[in-house]
Amino acid sequence: MTQRTVEHGNFSIERRFDAPASLVFQALTDVEMKRRWFAEGDGWVTESYALDAREGGHEEGTFRYQDGPPIRNETTYLDVVDDRRLVLSYCMFIDGKRISASLATIELSPEASGTRLIYTEQAAFLDGADTLKTRKEGCEQLFDTLGSELTRLAA
Amino acid sequence: MTQRTVEHGNFSIERRFDAPASLVFQALTDVEMKRRWFAEGDGWVTESYALDAREGGHEEGTFRYQDGPPIRNETTYLDVVDDRRLVLSYCMFIDGKRISASLATIELSPEASGTRLIYTEQAAFLDGADTLKTRKEGCEQLFDTLGSELTRLAA
C-alpha cells in the first residue's frame, strides 16, 4: 500500500483593523472585494475564482505562481453570522493532489475604533506535502494584504 | 448583537480491532453497516440516515433520544483512501441550532492480526452549546459500539 500520513496542527492569527466589522465582513464575503486581497498578487495568475459565502455555499480558486503548478482551494461555508463569524472547511491541492484539509474559524469583534479579527485554523496535512509553519506564514501574509486593502478602502 | 463564542479543542481516540482493515473500512463507509453501530441504539429513534462516503459525498442523520429534541449531523467527506483513511467535516445541530463544526480524521493501520484505528477530531464548539469532554465521551462510546459490531461480524 502507498505510504499515507496525516500531521495535525492548529494555529491562530490575530489582527486589528481600523475599519468597522461590517466592512471587514464584506471584504471576507463579497466576491469582488475578496478576490482583490485573496486571489490576486504580484506574480500570481488567477485561473478561476468564485465565492458564495452563505451557509452551505462554496468558494473555489485555482492559482499559479509564475509558471508553477496549479494551486487550488475548495471551501465550504459551514456557519455564517453576519459581521461576526465565519466557520468553513477547506482543502488545498497542488497539481491535483490534495495536500491538506482544514477547519477555519474567523471571529470579528468590534472595538472602540475598529475591529479585532481572530483566525483559527485546525488542519490535517496529508502525506507530507505541506507544513503548519508554511501554512501559518501564508495566512499571515493574506491577512496583512487584507489590512492593506482595508486601509486603501478607508482612504 | 447576540453573544457569540467559539471554543476550539482537539482530541484523539485509539482502538484496536480484531478485524482486517478492509472490514473496518466497510463498517465506516457502507450505509447499512454504519447505520447499525452509528445510528441505532437503545432509546434512540432514527428519523433519517443517509451516507455516501465518497470524496465530496455527504452523510446526514437526524436522531432523537427518547422524547428529546432532534439531534442532527451533516457531514461532507473530503479525503477518502480505501482501507486507510477518511477525512471529513461535520456539523452537529440540536433542535435546529448548530452547536459545533469539526474536522475529523480516521486513520486505519493494518497490524499483525487486526487493525489499529486512530480518530482525531479538531472541533469548534459554538455559542457554549457543547464541550470537548462531552464530544470525546460520545465518540468513545461510538467506537466501542463499532468494536462490538466488528466482534459480532467476526463470530
CATH level-1 class of chain A: Alpha Beta
Percent of residues in beta strands of chain A: over 45%
Unreliable spans of chain A = none
Q: Roughly what is the average pLDDT of chain A, rounded to an integer?
A: 95
The coarse overall form of chain A would be globular
The interface involving the most residues is between:
A-B, 27 and 27 residues
Supply the number of helical segments of chain A: 3
Class by alpha and beta content of chain A: alpha+beta
Helix content of chain A: 25-40%
How would you write the strand order of the largest sheet of chain A? Answer: 1-7-6-5-4-3-2
**What is the CA–CA distance across the termini of chain A?**
57 Å
| Rg value of chain A | 16 Å
Question: How would you describe this protein?
Answer:
The structure is a homodimer of 155-residue chains. The first copy, chain A, is an alpha+beta fold and 155 residues long. The first copy, chain A, has one domain: START domain (Alpha-D-Glucose-1,6-Bisphosphate, Chain A, domain 4, 2-Layer Sandwich), CATH 3.30.530.20. Helix content of chain A is 26%, strand content 50%. In chain A, strands 1-7-6-5-4-3-2 form a 7-stranded antiparallel β-sheet, with helices on one face. In chain A, helix 2 packs across helix 3. The first copy, chain A, is globular.
